[in-house]
């Protein structure tokens, strides 16, 4: 028995060496690519390493109504909850891959009946066998059996272990994908919330302007009665009041749509959004420290997600390459089998056991394995480019937001002066019109210019708030 086992081992080693030589000669060559993660030293002249991405979103956003919306969205947002289930799927995939390189052990039990024809080789041999009286073979022959049987693929080339590692990398990638979704969700809710506050302020401006224009219309009508102006002036002022009133309903419709958008993100049916628009124009967005570009590699979830996808793609190449090499399998079983239940657990007569090994290697049709190997390598190179693209995109986003913040700061100051000048010009034009030193068209144009300038100022304030929110998002803040 020992001699036979040694022969089997020797033959297996010879076959293993032969197939290894054949596989190494027939494995196609591929081009490998390493990701370039080098980034500039700074976004601008500053080398300050303080980074606002480390600030938690509850500390970054001071408005209690906004914090409540974000907190609800992180619990109820359907898209986020779908992603959480995808994470669980990826986690289960790890267990599945881990189970592939562990032995498969099954318990088997069965019962049957076997009737062999008398005039067959087996039937004739059983009939001529010298069996003691009372111990004859039953006819037909029952068969009872139970035992444990195992199969195991020996992971010599780490094919199965690398497949599990790739599943782990993809699980971590799905977690980073969830984190990236959280940053986007928080930023989208915050931007919509401040858009809602801006619309509230624009609606308040329109209502004040309606009152101003209604007063001007009343004066024009009095002047028309006094024959100081014509009916044309009255109609022009009336048309301006109607135009401004129509703006009121346009803004109210926008408010409804933005409220519904926020409710959708929060995961609930439409309802009024609790908020306080007072002091919106006096709000100063929290200053954001951009840190240094290399911190993006650790702070941005999408960059880490791309990195994990690259790691998984590299492992996929190793798994595909291992398919060129032979696989070694071991099967074993132990149990009891007898034709009579009373003999079933008697040993060693009813004991059965088996032990076998097999060596399998692809020799003839290897086109599918080669194609899979080349595809895995192409996907790995693709993952490298995606990783580099994600890093570049992150840097550009931060650089753009820095420029937007600086430019909006200058723009807001100039627009504020413009609003102040036009607001003063409204009363001046009104006084000149009353004294017949200004045309009514000058009054109307001045009022319209002032209204548009106030709208622009509110819009610029909203853009300022959005710029700091987007900067916080671009740095990778909010997901912790």
UniProtKB/TrEMBL annotation:
Q: Where is this chain primarily localised?
A: membrane
Its topology with respect to the membrane?
Lipid-anchor
**Where located?**
Cell membrane
Q: What are the alphabetically sorted keywords of the record?
A: Coiled coil, Lipoprotein, Membrane, Palmitate, Transmembrane, Transmembrane beta strand
Instruction: State the coiled-coil residue ranges.
Output: 70-100
Q: Which GO terms describe its cellular component?
A: plasma membrane
Which chain regions cross the lipid bilayer? none
- GO terms for molecular function, please? efflux transmembrane transporter activity
- What family does this belong to? Belongs to the outer membrane factor (OMF) (TC 1.B.17) family.
What is this protein identified as?
RND transporter
Q: Which organism is it from?
A: Echinicola pacifica
